[in-house]
Design brief:
It is a multi-pass membrane protein. By secondary structure, this protein is mainly alpha-helical. It is built from 16 helices and 4 strands. 28% of the residues are buried.
């Protein structure tokens, strides 16, 4: 019992709330006189940063969708979910900007007006709900992308992916409901600091701080799990170590969102348990909340952007490399008109050359990893004899028309004819040898 008595003061210090929504009277008396004329303000810098990051995020999203829909033509459920998540993402970022510039979170709590005491609560609800919907959709989108790249590699990994999807969906639904109905009646959430309204209505609320801190902490744990899942898949591939590290680095970009999640969790706990000046310090929490969602979209789109950058930034390099290569064997150059189609086929072929047991190419695609075998076709340079033979086919003339005498006569060929290419249509096989010229013969025209 003596040990319990020794530990009791430490436990009380840990659970004692030195902050939150309801300051005690002695704290209220210690606050300075409200300044409604020129109160201390946070400024525009953070709002500008959030808007710029939102613009970059939207550009990355457009590039991702163009790569999937316009270039690769391989869009999936992950792209659909990401497109849906863009709407609450805009709502989240715009709400955060309004919160830290207009609706009260730019001032100290003692400088709040009667209007901002209500608008601060309204914008808080908007930020939290948009955050829950947006981040849940982004996480499920990333997990659907993992499901696409696994193919039939490991059933254990597939189970982990599906389990994570179910966990994220249940987490999102549960906390959206908890946040929406924190207070009873629900709209009383907006009037916690409205003294006149409180005198006329009865209000009961759950522990808002516990809900918000739990949301932030669980979300951060989910971010870590989602970032680490593909590392175990890639590490089992027999590919060069440099390529392993490169692939792991691409997927590990999501750790940036984990850092934002940790900072969001810290400021959520600080606001609800370590200070009564909640509007002044919640300012930092809203910034990290918006950045976490924006950076999550950017990191989730990184694998799909490989095809976009290859299309628009490596075209000149690839042509110059081909022009410099000579002798031996070469890859067949593609005409400009078929560039897009050839790249699509190249992406599909390269995707089919990767195996978990080995690697047939030095490149692993970011949109799909399959277990299969492929074939790479190369064309050897022509020797002198084959070049002369090939040159003889460059000037082609036509067969005589029926009006010129058909196939009879001593001189059925037109003047100057060297070589004629003729092909039988598949539908004409099996017909008698006296075939119709109009049906069966495709002729080359003179150059």
């Amino acid at each position: 019992m003596s040990q319990v008595g020794v530990l009791t003061p430490h436990v009380r210090r840990l659970v004692t709330r030195d902050g939150g929504l309801h300051p005690p009277p002695d704290v209220l008396r210690s606050w300075p006189t409200p300044n409604y004329v020129n109160p201390e303000d946070r400024g525009w810098s953070s709002s500008i940063v959030l808007l710029v990051v939102l613009g970059v995020t939207f550009f990355v999203y457009i590039a991702r969708m163009w790569a999937r829909l316009g270039i690769g033509k391989n869009a999936g459920w992950d792209d659909t979910l990401m497109s849906i998540a863009i709407l609450p993402l805009f709502g989240l970022t715009i709400s955060a900007v309004l919160a830290i510039r207009i609706y009260g979170f730019q001032w100290h709590v003692w400088d709040q007006t009667k209007e901002t005491l209500v608008t601060a609560r309204q914008i808080t609800m908007s930020i939290e709900i948009n955050y829950m919907i947006c981040t849940t959709l982004i996480k499920v989108s990333i997990l659907c992308f993992y499901r696409r790249i696994t193919g039939s590699v490991t059933i254990t990994f597939v189970y982990w992916v599906w389990g994570s999807i179910i966990f994220c969906v249940l987490y999102g639904i549960t906390f959206v409901l908890l946040i929406s109905f924190t207070c009873s009646p629900a709209h009383g959430f907006f009037h916690i600091f409205d003294i006149a309204w409180r005198f006329q209505h009865e209000l009961t609320c759950r522990d808002e701080g516990a809900i918000i801190v739990a949301v932030a902490a669980i979300s951060t744990v989910q971010d870590f799990i989602i970032c680490l899942l593909p590392v175990f898949l890639i590490w089992n591939l027999r590919i060069p170590k440099t390529q392993k590290f490169a692939l792991c680095g691409i997927f590990a970009l999501g750790l940036v969102t984990c850092i934002c999640g940790i900072l969001r969790t810290y400021y959520a706990s600080y606001v609800y348990y370590r200070t009564y000046d909640i509007t002044w310090y919640a300012y930092y929490g809203w910034i990290w909340t918006a950045l976490e969602a924006d950076l999550a979209v950017i990191c989730a789109s990184a694998p799909a952007l490989k095809m976009f950058f290859r299309r628009y930034f490596n075209m000149t390099t690839s042509h110059s490399d081909y022009a410099r290569s000579g002798g031996g064997s070469r890859r067949t150059p593609m005409p400009p008109s078929s560039t897009a189609e050839s790249r699509d086929k190249e992406s599909t072929l390269s995707a089919s050359r990767t195996e978990t047991g080995g690697i047939h190419d030095d490149e692993v695609p970011m949109d799909r990893i399959k277990v299969s075998q492929g074939l790479e076709i190369q064309i050897d340079e022509r020797d002198d004899l084959s070049r002369r033979s090939f040159a003889s086919t460059r000037k082609l003339t036509t067969l005589p028309t029926l009006q010129d005498g058909g196939w009879q006569g001593s001189n059925p060929w037109r003047q100057g004819c060297r070589t004629v290419c003729a092909a039988l249509r598949p539908s004409s096989r099996g017909i008698s040898q006296t075939r119709s010229r109009e049906r069966d013969v495709e002729i080359g025209t003179a150059i």
